[in-house]
Each structure stands twice: as C-alpha cells, then as structure tokens.
Amino acid sequence: MKRILVPIDFSGDSLKALRFAIYLANKLDCHLRIIHVQKSEKFEIPFHFEEMKNEIIHTVQEYLEKLIELHSAGYCVKNGVFDFKIRTGSVYREIVNQAKYGDAYMILMGAYGASGFEEFFIGSNAFKVVRNADCPVITVQNEFTKGQLKTIVMPIDASTETRKKIPFVTDIASSCNAKVHILGVHETTNSQIVGKIEHYMRQAEGYFKEANVEFVSSLRQGDNNTFSSLDYAREVEADLITIMTEQAESSFNMFFGSYAQQMVNRSEIPILSVPND
Question: Which of 159, 171, 208, 257 would be 247's cystine partner, CB 3.0–4.6 Å?
Fold first, then answer.
C-alpha cells in the first residue's frame, strides 16, 4: 500500500496539511505517516496546538500520539496504518530522507511553518523539500474547507518534461473523481512553440480519455506563465495546481528554478510539484 508523508511542526499550516492528507489518503487508499523533525533532542513546547490547549503533555512523542488519536476517526483506509516518526537534524533533509527510505508516494506539507523560527517553511524548507524529494510534493497554505478535491489545473508548456506529471495527475483525478483543466501556457507568439504546446495538450487529452478522466482544455498567452496559471486557477476555483519541480533549461520553460518557487510561495491554492526524474 502507498504511503503519504506529512511533516508536522505544530504550526497552523502543518495541521491544515494533515487534514488534507487524511482526505487524500482515504481517496488514494494510502498509509499515512507524520514526521516531526527536531533541531536537537531538547524538548520544546509546540507553537500552535489549539486542539490540545487543555492537555498536559510533556514530550513530542506524546503530542504526536495525541494528534493521531484526535484525527484517527477521519482516517478510513482498510488495513491502513496511521503512525509517526521523530527525527533530529536538518528539517528538509530529514523529511526528504524519510520519504525516500520510507518509500513515500507523496509528501504533503504546509507552505508556512512557525513564524519567527529559523526553520520557517516558506521559501526555505518547503521549497527545499520540493526541489530535493524523489516523490511528488503537495504544499498547502489554506484550510481544506471544501472537503473534496474536484478541480485540478494542469499547466502544459513547451518542454518535453511537462508531460511527466500526467500519470500522477491521472491517478489523483481518478481517485477523487476530479475534473482536470489542461492549460497550455506560453509567453511567446512563436508558432512552433505554440504548436508544440498544442501537441502536448492533445497527448494529455488522449491519456485522460483512455483513463476516463473528465477534462477541459484551454490555451493562454501571458507575460509570466506562473501568473497566467494562477489567474486561471483562481477563475475556475481550482483545488490543486500541478507543476514540474524542475525542467530542462530553456527560455520557454515554465517552472525552472525561480518559477517553481514563485508558484509555491505565491499560490493560496495547493501546489502539486512532480519531480523531473
């Protein structure tokens, strides 16, 4: 059975990520594992744990045990395991290593951590995890209030690597009965570039048809592919945007380097980053 890994630093965003992860684990029939990374063996009181404000708890292990107890009722996978790991060291390295050696299907984490701390997530650990993980990573900022994932935006650019996310998107869309918006994006009027994007879009359409995934296709030109994708996702009230973590270097690539970081940092909509491996 597959496993979803959820980093928890007890910040509000990490707890929002846990609730989203429980939903996806139920839909995808996955084990669920929490990971908490300590800078040292010294115990520190968690920063944001309103659910347990009346509890007397003395160790990180007790907090995690209580957290699982509070959320176990929502986890409904037959023969599924909902557990936790505690590791010490570099936050992003320990998360990436746990995902690798625990054979995680995906990592689902908060984009922000506890503000005021050295290991704050945004622009730091979240993006480092996205860039270094061998598995897909979903980053979230807002509460999963809809209780379901129904609309996925999948931007397509002119790079060959852009198509590598299609099988993973298909898996999620099929499990959640979601509609995929295939969004061709480009920053140029070059007909060869646009033609290549349209060709890739048709390939994605064929893949989704074969998998019986509902989809719609659109093509947009703009000054910045990140902003074009975000604007479209907001218009259709998307629940998830999918990107490639890193793509071959080209002036027409969509999410290479800073573009991926822009998307993770700027989007209030969850971002699914699929590694280019």
Answer: 159
